Structures
1.
Amino acid sequence: MRKSYNDMVGLPHPVSRRHPPMARIKRAAQFAAFDALTGFGAAIAEAGRETEEKLELSEDMIDMINARLAVIGQHINEEPSVSVTYFLPDKKKPGGQYVTVSGNVKRLDGIKCAIIMADGKTIPMEDVRYLDGDLFRGYE
């Protein structure tokens, strides 16, 4: 190592009398525009978010759901109150999640194969996992 800088090594850091030192947060903000990993945190969070696979229903479960849909059809004028558990596909990655909604059924759409709830929610019948409600108590 060259000895030509030995006279400066022990000197204190110079401080300007004209310009006060900048706060660290402001100094860091100057370089935020150069952040090479913008959006990286969101991408990591998305990758870590878990989804479920859609489960295949047994023949017994399919028969039970079809029987309960028939009961709903018989009482459709009353807009029966039911709870529907169904598979909601994820829009960004494979899989999805099972959700349960409760409300009144407005109609069963045979063309679209969907349950139309009174609040406007449309649930594809192929995604239904379970139907529950007081309406089904006398039919089992």
2.
Amino acid sequence: MAAGTLAACGSGNSGGTPTLTWYINPDSGGQAEIASRCTAAADGRYQIQVSQLPRDSPAQREQLVRRLAANDSSIDIMSLDPPYIPEFAQAGFLAPVPDDVAARVTEGVVQSSVEGSTWNDKLVAIPFWANTQLLWYRKSVASAAGLDMTQPVTWDQLITAAQSQHKLIGAQGKRSESLTVWLNALVESAGGHIIATNSDKPEQIKLGLDSEAGRRAAALMKKLADSGTGGPGFSTANEDTSATGFEGPDAGFMVNWPFVWPRALTAVKAGTLAQSVPDDYGWAVYPRVDANTPSAPPYGGINLTVSAFSPHVDLAYQATECITSDANQAYYFTTNGNPASSTAVYDDPDVLKVFPQAPVIRQSLEQAAPRPLTPFYSEVSGGIQRDYHPPASVVPDKTGQQASDLISAVLRGDQLL
């Protein structure tokens, strides 16, 4: 059913039962199943119908912003990419989270997911599923290179190891959001922040790209690009490209989301990948920038927000607590491959059976750092993608300042991306 059709009947009553419309990102049917489960559990208090957003995250944001700016009351619950949460909160699009709800939905939740749901020191979204990137490695390659993967490793070590074994490192060098994800993880792992001084006033934002941490991150990005270990298509590589390369004979190491594990197993079942390939997969926490400083892996996922224009705010928040229950998060993890924000889920035997990486994913999420929390995230990320691409063109002593100048000019309204 088209979104417009759903909107016409959304947030209404059916036989006296209020209908909550939940705008979801595309998945493998998991959110629709959870909506059905929570409708049954509500016992007539409400029912949930889903409406699917576009596949592309910026397109999801655009559709929701346009409708919420028009005070559209047909939207009750939204699955929202964390980088856009401050923008929605600052614009007044989100209904305040009740204090008692905030206390319950943050108990036992990984810190990165709580941070990604917070703006101006207040919880403005409900943690749902939390994603992170791991360091994936071929056990045979790491062993041949003499790397002890039971201990933290650095990017410099990975580049040296890959060169010694004539193997590749999978990372995302494409001019897209994945490039911002990579740079942010490098800057945070080096002890810095892309936004050094935050503000809800664009002209008062101070950027940290031209800092010691920013220059260290840029140098590593440049080093990987120049080393040849990223492969000939590095500047156009996204997450799927990296996963494909890691299944091939030249694979050595890769940073990527947990989807690569079920992807490989599915290929084995389909007969397109030998079982020996995933048997050679190893996983560890994201590589460090400096040997003595723990890394800050990427944080992603989806959090739930309730529209300020919903006629059923109280019921919508009740529904979010059902949606994000441990049982539903475990179901979503095992069936759709989306990791939980609740730490308890990682001890679930069913989860451990499907994702043996679960303990490392949980550790990674506890260390993870969100991308810059700002209402102007689109401008910040767009500026980074423009000046840090291709990675081989990065100049550690210049690119940070160039990107800072561009982003600041855009925030002041003096320049367009």
3.
Amino acid sequence: MSAAKRFSSKTFAALSVRNFRLYFIGQLISVSGTWMQSVAQGWLVLQLTGSSVDLGIAVALQYLPMLLLGSYGGLIADRHEKRRILYCTQVSAGLLALVLGLLVTSHHVTVDTVYVLAALLGVVNLFDNPARQAFVQEMVGRDLIANAVSLNSVLMNAGRLIGPGIAAGFIAVVGTAVCFYANSVSYLAVLLALVLMRRSEFLPMKIVERQKGQLRLGVKYVAQNPLLRNVILSVAVVGTFAYNFTVTLPLLTRHTFHQTSAADYGLLMASMGLGAIFGGLFIAHRSRPTPKLLATLTLCFGFFMTLTSFAPSITWAEIALVPTGAFSIAFISTANATVQLNSSQQMRGRVMSLYAIAFLGTTPIGAPLIGAIVALSNPRVGIQVGSGVALVTGIWLVLSLRQDERSTQVLQMA
């Protein structure tokens, strides 16, 4: 077998599983639509208000339910069939996108209606995210979970590469409403993929029976596992301050580089998405994640994010966002796989919900905070705050890793 074939077979191993292959194709189409809506919604809020704070609020409301009730969403995923949950969430998200498109077309959209629909989508994602995360192992099994998670990250960012470019074209030619309609239709691809999957090929997963104290038990389980605790804490801190690109990049485009075209914002998002595809493929090729790799990726993410903040022109920002995107997705994919591989089957839904709270649920805190920082200073400072936090977190992970190694040596000597 040639080196290229060996690389391909190892990198795309999870796609040999028919159910995951269907899921992958459906999600690729749907995620492209999701990123189209993300770009269009951010641009719409800026058109309606021109305020960085309002943009931060709109982003925050979409993730507020995850912050407040994320553990409950994970418990529902542990108690019920994941595919059935996904049927409900995909239909609901599609209807919300359709409503937003109709409001824009009929000229009845206001910033308040955008807020309400963003919050409702957050309720949908509260149940969708942990179910979707746990569903991956049900399709591919434990041996392929790290590869599948990384490929899942690749498709999320392939959507980021495809969606913003299409959205920018639509916004420039026919307006934002078409992006919302396209996203609504894109959910049909996921529903079709779910229908075509073979139930007999799913790996058996235990359904957790209803009992008192299950939410507390999930939190206690993570708190008593040093690896899970450190990974989820690092994701929470970096997620709060660094992963606010839907706030910082439109503001960087309009206020720093003085570009009024949605196409320029779309190119920034696409550049980051292109890098994220490379980062996801790199992680997919690795067999297993390690704490050392996670620490290294965190430091690299912070470094290239800092370079992005100092870009002298929008062209240089696009160039710097390629490695930024690569390391951002490599970091989050490695963290995700680490958490899944080191949590028990019965706890996975609740553990993944805590992971989702750390990564997505912190957005209601981070997005308005970064939006306010930008309002008081400028978009460059908003990005630099996130990059500085990422660098500090990376150093903390390195020090924690060394501490763990010393503790292990002491135990071995004893």
